[in-house]
Amino acid sequence: MSEIADKVKKIVVEHLGVDESKVTPDASFIDDLGADSLDTVELVMAFEEAFSVEIPEDAAEKITTVKDAIDYIEKQKAA
Amino acid sequence: MFRLDGKVALVTGASGGIGREIARALHAQGAVVVLSGTRQAVLEDVVASIGAEGGVDRLHVCPADLSDAAAADALVASAEEKAGAPLAILVNNAGLTRDTLAIRMKDEDWSRVLDVDLAAPFRLCRAALKGMLRRRAGRIVNIASVVGVTGNAGQANYAAAKAGMIGMGKSLAQEAGSRGVTVNTVAPGFVQTAMTDVLPEAQKEKLVGSIPLGRMGQATDIAPAVVYLASDEAGWVTGATIHVNGGMAMV
């Protein structure tokens, strides 16, 4: 697993207080990990801070799973 | 009841009549109070005066010019640094007026009042909420005005800002509710302060005539409403506006 994926996973575990084993790539923040809309906004803000990237509102709306977040950040970092 | 022991509270406009009384009341309930305002010397006088009754520990001064967006953005962090603990209570009390009839109102009169009385409170709420939501605890009390609900000739700018504050508070209350953070408003009526001292005597007499309780308010009439909303006991009150106006407007 990439360094970014590791860090994303860690932030999700920390923020949502879920068991690490549940944070699979396909896990949906809202449907599988019990997040509400405010949690998803806070998660996006935590990603922005941790990775020094900016995630605009329209992109943030599409980040619904762990994999979405990892892919988006990896793409930003590669650019 | 209504104890605030050890909780960090930031009060803006703490050099003004209502603000200093709010600071005094929160301090008397045990809070660690950070007083903000534009005039450092006046703030220090207020601290000395509150300290003479209750001791100067738990009192901090953090001057800021809220017409400066960057200063408003930075105030919550610097208050927390001064107090050495996260913010539990934010009281947006700072405000100014530039009264004149609309047809004579300059753009600058409009934007300055909207900047200081509405944009700055939003900036402070935004900064405070980030931490409060994470900590699952917090109290925001915004000080609006009766004219935000009734309107007042000569105060289109001030009334718009204060009405805006009430709408903003209700929205933030809905956003923050799931985290146990409450956002409420206190709307004072005509209170005897430097802001109302400048009104002509005839106008003041007329105003008092429209107040069922027959007198202008004092800052000490307002502060207890803030203490209540800041307390744990007010944990099921959010998005509310408490009108403290002697009955002048029963809304």
From TrEMBL, chain A:
Its main location: cytoplasm. It comes from Acidomonas methanolica NBRC 104435. PANTHER family: ACYL CARRIER PROTEIN, CARRIER DOMAIN-CONTAINING PROTEIN. Carrier of the growing fatty acid chain in fatty acid biosynthesis. One of its GO terms (molecular function) is acyl carrier activity. GO terms for biological process: Kdo2-lipid A biosynthetic process; lipid A biosynthetic process. One of its GO terms (cellular component) is cytosol. It is found in: Cytoplasm. The keyword Lipid biosynthesis applies. Pfam families: PP-binding (PF00550). Pathway: Glycolipid biosynthesis; KDO(2)-lipid A biosynthesis; Lipid metabolism; fatty acid biosynthesis. This is Acyl carrier protein. It comes from the Bacteria. The gene is acpP. The modification O-(pantetheine 4'-phosphoryl)serine is found at residue 37. Keywords: Cytoplasm, Fatty acid biosynthesis, Fatty acid metabolism, Lipid biosynthesis, Lipid metabolism, Phosphopantetheine, Phosphoprotein. Residues 2-77 form the Carrier domain. 4'-phosphopantetheine is transferred from CoA to a specific serine of apo-ACP by AcpS. This modification is essential for activity because fatty acids are bound in thioester linkage to the sulfhydryl of the prosthetic group. 4'-phosphopantetheine is transferred from CoA to a specific serine of apo-ACP by acpS. Belongs to the acyl carrier protein (ACP) family.
Automatic annotation (TrEMBL), chain B:
This is 3-oxoacyl-[acyl-carrier-protein] reductase. The lineage of its organism: Bacteria, Pseudomonadati, Pseudomonadota, Alphaproteobacteria, Acetobacterales. It comes from the Bacteria. It comes from Komagataeibacter swingsii. Coiled coil: none annotated. PROSITE patterns: ADH_SHORT. The keyword Lipid metabolism applies. Belongs to the short-chain dehydrogenases/reductases (SDR) family. NADP(+) binds at residues 38, 93, 158-162. Keywords: Fatty acid biosynthesis, Fatty acid metabolism, Lipid biosynthesis, Lipid metabolism, NADP, Oxidoreductase.
